[in-house]
Amino acid sequence: MKCNTDRRISFCSDNCRCAQCVNQDTLQRNFDTFAIPKDVSPTEISPKSDGVDILWSDSHKSYYPWSWLNFTVQDTSNKKPTIQEKLWGATVSSAPPEVEFNNVLNSTSPKGMAELTGKIRQYGFCFVTNSPKTPEDTEKLLETIGPIRNTHYGGFYDFIPDLALADTAYTNLALPAHTDTTYFTEPAGLQAFHLLSHTPPTNKPADEVLGGQSLLVDGFHAAETLRKESPGDFEILRKVKLPWHASGNQGVAIAPDMAYPVIEATGEKLHRIRWNNDDRGVVPVDIDVDAWYQAARKWDEILKRKESEYWFQLEPGRVLIFDNWRVLHGRSAFEGLRRICGAYISRDDFISRWKMTNFPREEVIASNMQLR
Amino acid sequence: MKCNTDRRISFCSDNCRCAQCVNQDTLQRNFDTFAIPKDVSPTEISPKSDGVDILWSDSHKSYYPWSWLNFTVQDTSNKKPTIQEKLWGATVSSAPPEVEFNNVLNSTSPKGMAELTGKIRQYGFCFVTNSPKTPEDTEKLLETIGPIRNTHYGGFYDFIPDLALADTAYTNLALPAHTDTTYFTEPAGLQAFHLLSHTPPTNKPADEVLGGQSLLVDGFHAAETLRKESPGDFEILRKVKLPWHASGNQGVAIAPDMAYPVIEATGEKLHRIRWNNDDRGVVPVDIDVDAWYQAARKWDEILKRKESEYWFQLEPGRVLIFDNWRVLHGRSAFEGLRRICGAYISRDDFISRWKMTNFPREEVIASNMQLR
Fold it and tell me: Do the record's keywords include Cell membrane (chains A, B) (predicted)?
């Protein structure tokens, strides 16, 4: 940065870090950037041990800590709150990520929450073990991560499948691996399921196998497999933007603000998976339709490989929380009555909680202000 | 579409509209696209008066209504739920859009809701007049449009400014025109304010001018003005992606999933405005920083022109609802105590309500399934 030349003057005056310019509570700008005279110039530049003072021609005195200038101007890659994602397949079943309920909720230390959110960031999911088997405690746990997201289905849910409801999620049918709310501009960030009870039908013995196994598939793992085995198909699913819809509820017909691809990625970095073939709209006819179907067929085949699928049984006291931008979920068909509670949490709130429990506050905020 | 050639077979079999293939409640696919044999082919094509039957080599019989084929394959521009936006400046004050509370809420007809949502789509805002002066009725009104969005500030709000809270919105200071929640991946869609009361300070007479005028600015109008007067600056604000942040609350540091530009637009079509200079992050140093500041200075100047600004006084019984993706809001400083209630509603839910009250359901869903 050349603050002592004519160029970049606006940048320097806009980013003054003095206590007068930055609201010390909200860390928002406390002045009108555009009220600064266009011809303002530095009249005195005074380097100090911890930063630099600049006296401007309008007599305002700015302060910039060296740490802030370094972070802003240099490569910031080492200082960003970041995590190494662990991609997984079926073998994750031998040691799935889990944390103790009491460490997350009944602790004065943020370590349990740091561990929970950190594991969800690493694996895309985590179990919360030894949870009280009540909807109230489950709701409290989830609200501690972030505000529960309200949709046309409601907020926190606590339901027993009712075949009269117009969504397959509320049936006892098998559901192939999918992400939820593909039809929202911003799909649900986190999703949680807590099985509170599963009782057999009246005509069956209590020890009968009732089905209802849960399925998770790491969408980032599947996408990387696709990229490796068939880079052309990966590019098609990344580039072709599709319509998605929710049309099953009276008076409601939801679609995103625009079409979105199955795989969102920037360069090497995977960002979001959006996949529910049942509520996918019509493949646009002005693209190579055959090529899209071929790519989707390959994607579907990878998702359904035995080595991609992690099957397990939900249990009371063991809350499942997963990242709906990365991990697909499904289940096998079942008999009897299952009572399941859970909720959606917006991704921004989850990421905020993860950052604030795992990294120093100043580092998080400095990084947020530099987000690319 | 040439369903009777070898090409596009996947498309046709994937989009069968027969009652067996499409769940008649949810309108979701009722079959596994990728379980259809790759080598399936049509063996019999039978045009009828209302559509076409195709008998496939795996003995499934598909049906496609002509209307569906026409909509899917032809230019659909005439059939999309659409509205002519009315861009406005200060003169909108002579006849601001409004609807009667009773027509929206206490009516068996959807006409009032159609009018309310239609006017918000056209103007970016609408008043609901003769509303009961209670938070309960305001909440009910808003929930009828769509589910209230929950954030780290809570859901439905009902507050009296308290200088102890760490956000300028909760003070009595002047606020320049801005959009809310620039720091969310998906900023709030609709926003509502209902002034329930404004009482003077104890040391002032009851008829004192207390300030607190409200300000709206049509961001789409300002963007079109910028595009016309300075296309280069428009392009800079459209292309340069910036960081945004909310850092004022203990334990919370929110940022969007990636950087976003001030103006989001595809070709001629404006999509979303994101502008709050106070919670804007640092302009990325790897772009032409000076050019960005010059463009932002021009944008700021347009927003602050007298002919851009619509000033008015909020009143009990007159609920303001506006599109936070288009319209900027602000207020002048005030004395005394103001009690204001309101909420955010997600844009997808609002758009769904608008479409479903203004257009036939089949048209809405067909269009959602074709969204580009």
Answer: no
The pLDDT assigned to B8 comes to 64
Ramachandran class of A245: left when φ > 0, alpha when ψ lies in -120 to 50, beta otherwise: beta
- Spell out the alpha helix ranges (H) of chain B: 9-14, 66-73, 101-104, 111-123, 135-145, 219-229, 231-239, 289-303, 347-358, 361-368
The whole domain housing A36 covers 9-74
Q: How many CB pairs under 8 A join A and B?
A: 263
Chain B residues close to A166, C-beta within 8 Å: 25-26
Determine, for residues B183 and A28 on separate chains, whether the beta-carbon distance falls below 8 Å: no
Indicate whether A163 pLDDT > 90: no
CB–CB of A352 and B253 under 8 A? Answer: yes
Label the pairing between strands A319-323 and A125-129: antiparallel
Do residues B126 and B190 both lie within one domain? Answer: yes
A192 lies in the same domain as A313: yes
> What tokens were used for B314?
């909020």
Q: Does residue A364 lie within any of the structural domains?
A: no
Residues B136 and B237 in one domain: yes
Q: Which residue of B has its CA nearest to A163?
A: B25
pLDDT of A48 higher than 70: yes
CATH of the domain at A36: 3.30.2020.30
Residue B229 and residue B135 share a domain: yes
Please judge whether A258 and B371 are an interchain contact, meaning their C-beta atoms are less than 8 angstroms apart: yes
Contacts of A123 (CB under 8 A, 6+ apart): A86, A88, A92, A96, A97, A218
Instruction: Assess whether pLDDT exceeds 60 at residue B1.
Output: no
Are A57 and A190 contained in the same domain?
no
Q: Which residues of A touch B38 (CB under 8 A)?
A: 297
Do residues A284 and A348 both lie within one domain? yes
- Let me know whether A59 and A208 are in one domain: no
User: Is A295 inside any structural domain?
Assistant: yes
How confident is the model over B201-220, as a mean pLDDT? 86
- Residues of chain A with Cβ-Cβ distance to B151 below 8 Å are 147, 349
Is B352 close to A241, i.e. CB distance below 8 A? no
Same domain, B175 and B33: no
User: A157, A181, A257: best mutation site toward chain B, by most B Cβ within 10 Å?
Assistant: A257
Choosing from B74, B99, B131, the residue where a domain stops is B74
CA distance B150 to chain A (A): 6
The C-alpha angle A175, A177, A183, rounded to 5 degrees, equals: 90
- pLDDT (tens digit, 9 = 90+) per residue, A5-32? 444 688 888 999 899 999 888 889 989 9
